[in-house]
Amino acid sequence: EVQLVESGGVVVQPGDSLRLSCAASGFTFDDYGMHWVRQAPGQGLEWVSLISWDGRSTYYADSVKGRFTISRDTSKDSLYLQMNNLRAEDTGLYFCAKDNNSGESSGYYGFDYWGQGTLVTVSS
Amino acid sequence: DIQMTQSPSSLSASVGDRVTITCRASQSISRYLNWYQQKPGKAPKLLIFAASTLQSGVPSRFSGSGSGTDFTLTISSLQPEDFATYYCQQSYNTPRGFTFGPGTKVDIK
User: Fold this and answer.
1) How far apart are alpha carbons B28 and B25 in whole angstroms?
2) Cα–Cα distance between B101 and B26 in angstroms, integer?
3) What is the pLDDT of residue B25?
4) Which residue of B has its CA nearest to A47?
5) Cβ–Cβ of A107/B49 closer than 8 Å?
6) Contacting residues for B41 by C-beta, under 8 A, at least 6 apart
7) How much is the pLDDT for A30?
């Protein structure tokens, strides 16, 4: 059974840094691109970042580019999101999600498994 | 950037009703369109990818159609467990962006 379990969400102040983690199990982690998606309270979904199956390529939404860094550790089957210079508008539930297609075609066919999310609150 | 819109933003329906949700892209996205269902407090669930391919395990009452800029999600006979918010998502821009639509909330009439 595929499982994705996020952790690391807390209340922080504007300008602070935070690292989110996502522990993956039930599939061959090395074969799939992985994403972070966030959802502000009562709002819709916003894609945040993608890391390719081999970790060599990373992509970001314009809203987080230069502040967030996605990474993965294949030895731990884990995905990470380093968030720096946090802003109030970064507040939300952060989901990690697995790509629906293995290998190079990251994202074309949607995200088939999602974690339960971890809540980040940025407030002074 | 590709913008996604959905209509209606919400609808009320009864069990057994046929429900159609529309999604429109600001430019042609071929068939790179996915649909998700999200219930309160839960993660989104992939229903349909590539405009019309049903994800494994999803009931056949869900169907998708369209190409280019206009797409639809249809629930042929609404069931109690289908009351949720539905999002479309473009994946044409992969890997540089995966824009979601604003969502359509389906609730009980």
Assistant:
1) 7
2) 11
3) 98
4) B98
5) no
6) none
7) 94
**Token reading at A80:** 């990470």
pLDDT, one tens digit per residue, over A25-36 is 999 999 999 999
B95–A110 C-beta distance less than 8 A: no
Q: How far is B78 from chain A (nearest CA, A)?
A: 23
Query: CA torsion sign, B67 to A40 to B82 to A98?
Result: positive
CB-side exposure of B43: number of CA atoms within 13 Å?
Answer: 22
At residue B93, the pLDDT reads: 87
Report the DSSP pairing between strands A118-122 and A11-12.
Answer: parallel
Tokens representing residue A71 in the block: 């990474």
Contact B97 A47 (CB under 8 A): yes
Are A89 and A101 in contact, with CB atoms under 8 Å apart? Answer: no
Q: Give chain B's mean pLDDT.
A: 96
Length of chain A: 124
Cβ contact B78:B16 at 8 Å: yes
